Amino acid sequence: MPGLGLLLLRGALTSPLKHPGRPGAALPATRVTGPAAPAPAELLARYRRICHFPATGPLPPTYPHVLAFPLAMRLMTARAFPLPVLGLVHTWIEITSHRPVRPAEPLRLTVYAEALTPHRRGTEATVVTEARVADELVWESRSGYLARHSVRTAPATPTAAGATHEAPGLPAVTEWRLTGDLGRRYGAASGDRNPIHLHPLTARLFGFPRAIAHGMWTVARCLAEVEGADHVRTVRAEFRSPVLLPGTVTYAADGSGTTFQLRGGTDGARVHLTGTVTRDL
């Protein structure tokens, strides 16, 4: 896998050269593929702990996305990718598990860009990640990444197929107090050391008053609360607003546990994330 530090540096250098609102912008046809390998045992154990997944069993449904993050960064920091990686916002994710994946199975990961669409706040790219064991597709995800820029007219933002819509009034289930070092601890487990997650000072450089939690930690932490999370078929989540660290958030869910929210604010009315799962694996 490529070094993430070097990729972040490349992203910082190439971002000023990119103009996402430029007419005729197109996505590269590049498919970035890594060598087949099992999940690294020590990092997987850290990831399970910080996200509260069971210590044993199949890979958590969100973990192949974490494994493929360096490949996604290689794709998105390349000169041919039209959106600047600095300031890029992860807006939604859809995950489909075709079967449970054992940690020892060698996964071959591939990442490519599928679509570039106008958004009311800029331009959004859809990035696909696939995981195969030999020639079998065992897992896949689609993610939306938004580059914010001025638009002349506000198009109707396309919504990912099956993406969730906010379900107000979900009953609160539990409250989590998040420490200020959560971003650093998750970054050590996942490899995602984006400066907006690490320290208040580096987060302020990007317009945040404090460090913010990783979006992929929030969806994984919510998923860990779902009964039988290791065997879900699909996960769909929309990231609505950042979670500031340190802070307190509320996990809320419907009676069946298939629809969930992460809320915050003094009155618990600010929605950070909303999502759904299906469990037919």
What does this structure look like?
Helix 1 (4-14) packs parallel to helix 4 and helix 2 packs antiparallel against helix 5 (182-190). This protein has helices spanning 4-14, 41-51, 63-67, 69-76, 182-190, 200-204, 215-224, and strands at 31-33, 89-97, 108-119, 122-133, 136-148, 172-178, 234-239, 247-253, 259-264, 270-278. It starts with a helix and ends with a strand. Strand 8 (247-253) and strand 9 (259-264) form a beta hairpin. It is an alpha+beta fold and 281 residues long. It is built from 7 helices and 10 strands.
Secondary structure layout plus pairing:
Elements: H1 4-14, E1 31-33, H2 41-51, H3 63-67, H4 69-76, E2 89-97, E3 108-119, E4 122-133, E5 136-148, E6 172-178, H5 182-190, H6 200-204, H7 215-224, E7 234-239, E8 247-253, E9 259-264, E10 270-278
Antiparallel strand pairs: 1-3, 2-5, 2-7, 3-4, 4-5, 6-8, 7-10, 8-9, 9-10
Helix pairs in contact: 1-4, 2-5
- What does the main sheet amount to? 10 strands, antiparallel
The total count of strands amounts to 10
What number is the mean pLDDT? 88
Count of individual helical segments: 7
Which outline best applies? globular
Q: Kindly estimate the percentage of residues that lie in beta strands according to DSSP.
A: 25-35%
Class based on secondary structure composition and strand pairing: alpha+beta
Q: Which assembly state applies to the chains in this document?
A: single chain
Helix content: 10-25%
